[in-house]
Design brief:
The protein is an all-alpha fold and 302 residues long. It folds into 2 domains: 155 residues, Globin-like, CATH 1.10.490.10; 127 residues. The chain contains 13 helices and 2 strands. The protein has a two-stranded antiparallel sheet with strand order 1-2. Helix 4 packs across helix 6, helix 11 runs antiparallel to helix 12 and helix 12 packs antiparallel against helix 13.
């Protein structure tokens, strides 16, 4: 999932658009109930309307949330919290099995309703166009975020049963907690390796008997591992944001660890056999790493 800054940049959603929407806030409040009423008239024509809104209690809660979402369109605050709220709406739609074209059709109705609202309440023609442009942008952003919940690597996924929905929801929550735990452990690991790096330097400075060659090798090894762990941490953060994890980073980490061993063993002639084995492993990992990158490049071209 992209950041809100990236999404607003793509849609050229500017501070002027924010100001335009916020200027309608008080006017919109008075029409929120009418909006909900008109929208329900529209969605009641959908097939399986009663399946998704089965009783009056569910409809009441849905109307309240719908009204809240409608008012927040003009709240003037579009940050990461806003992104999460809209994303959650899309996830709920996907989890209950609501077809994505219902979402698109509903957004089209809302667009038409707001354009009509602007024509009725704003007199100046140039001002009408400015406001409609800003409204179209925020609706497009919302539709983009919501429908992204249906997409997983370009494949549509909609839970077909309540049990499946609950299992997927639970799995996603557990996976998220594991990801957060991994990021925390990687941060801790990075700090420990950094302290190891500093320790090697201090040991050399405080203990003149330490071999200069060994110290340099240890420092270079620690730097190599630290750099690779940083790459791994960056990839895990990207995964938390919804991007695909790059497996080749794990291979980089393994290669860095083996290279560090090779650097250390290179100072000990009696370990030539272990050195040869480690060199062979690095060669194999290097070939795998190259093949994976070659595959990714071909996918990008296609």
């Amino acid at each position: 999932m992209e950041t809100i800054e990236k999404i607003t940049e793509i849609y050229n959603f500017t501070d002027e658009d924010i100001s335009n929407l916020f200027s309608l806030k008080e006017l919109i409040k008075n029409s929120a109930d009418d909006f909900t009423l008109e929208l329900y008239k529209f969605i009641s024509n959908f097939d399986n309307y009663s399946k998704f809104l089965s009783d009056e209690e569910i409809r009441k809660r849905h109307k309240e949330k719908l009204k809240l979402w409608f008012l927040e369109l003009f709240n003037g605050k579009y940050d990461e919290d806003y992104l999460r709220k809209v994303k959650k709406i899309g996830e709920v739609h996907a989890q209950i099995g609501l077809p994505s074209h219902y979402v698109s059709a509903t957004m089209s109705f809302i667009r038409s309703y707001l354009n009509g609202f602007i024509l009725e309440n704003i007199d100046l023609a140039h001002r009408q166009e400015e406001l409609k442009t800003s409204i179209n942008k925020i609706l497009d952003i919302n539709l983009d975020i919501m429908t992204s919940s249906y997409i997983n690597e370009n494949q549509f996924y909609i839970a077909k049963t309540k049990i499946e929905t609950n299992i997927v929801r639970l799995s996603l929550k557990i996976s998220y907690f594991f990801d957060v735990g991994l990021v925390s452990l990687l941060v801790l690991t990075s700090l420990l390796i950094f302290f190891l790096f500093l320790s090697d330097i201090f040991k050399f400075l405080l203990n003149s008997s330490s071999s200069f060659e060994n110290t340099v090798i240890n420092i270079l090894g620690a730097m190599l591992i630290l750099w690779t762990v940083r790459e791994l941490l960056e990839e895990e953060v990207k995964r938390l944001k919804g991007k695909k994890f790059a497996l080749n980073v794990f291979i980089s980490l393994a290669m860095a660890a083996l290279l560090r061993k090779i650097l250390i063993f290179s100072l000990e002639p009696q370990k030539s056999e272990e050195l040869a084995i480690l060199g062979l492993l690095v060669l194999v990992l290097g070939i795998v790493y190259w093949l994976m990158n070659l595959s990714e490049q071909k996918k990008a071209v296609n």
